[in-house]
């Protein structure tokens, strides 16, 4: 299985939340946007500022994030991906979600027509399905 992971998937794993993507690491290849590190680090910093993470928690989350990110190929943002993300989508999509979807579309068109989109975000899963992706992830399995 070749997958595209949005940021909700490693974040749920990173913070030990319930119902993580059960096939983590069982893929043949995994991709994500280069946005993933930025999005995850912003969450870590936000939790630190809200005092939900202490210094040890921040250090641990950063270390685990580096480990998780090493297992995924990151796709660099390009002008064509950003242009695609700015185009109309079949459903309501937030800005960063549009970039993830546009990145997955580029991968599907250029290299992996069988690409599976993995997210825990129901709205993003709806958009990906509307664009013909098979979607996985707890919240998206039954959407």
- Over the alpha carbons, how many angstroms does the gyration radius reach? 15 Å
User: Which residues form runs of ≥5 with pLDDT under 50?
Assistant: none
How would the global form be characterised?
globular
Strand content: 5-15%
* Count of beta strands: 5
Structural class: alpha/beta
Straight-line distance between termini: 21 Å
Number of helices: 7
Q: How many structural domains in the coordinates?
A: 1
Task: Briefly say what this structure is.
The chain is α/β, with parallel strands linked by helices.
Index terms:
5-stranded parallel sheet, alpha/beta, 143 residues
Question: What would you note in describing this structure?
Answer:
The two termini are 21 Å apart. It is globular, with a radius of gyration of 15 Å. β4, α6 and β5 form a beta-alpha-beta unit. The chain has a 5-stranded parallel beta sheet with strand order 3-2-1-4-5. It has 7 helices and 5 strands. α2 runs antiparallel to α3 and α4 crosses α5. By secondary structure, it is α/β, with parallel strands linked by helices. The mean pLDDT is 93.
List the helices and strands and how they pair.
Blueprint: E1 2-5, H1 8-14, E2 29-33, H2 35-49, H3 55-70, E3 73-75, H4 79-86, H5 95-110, E4 116-118, H6 122-130, E5 134-136, H7 138-141
Parallel strand pairs: 1-2, 1-4, 2-3, 4-5
Helix pairs in contact: 2-3, 4-5
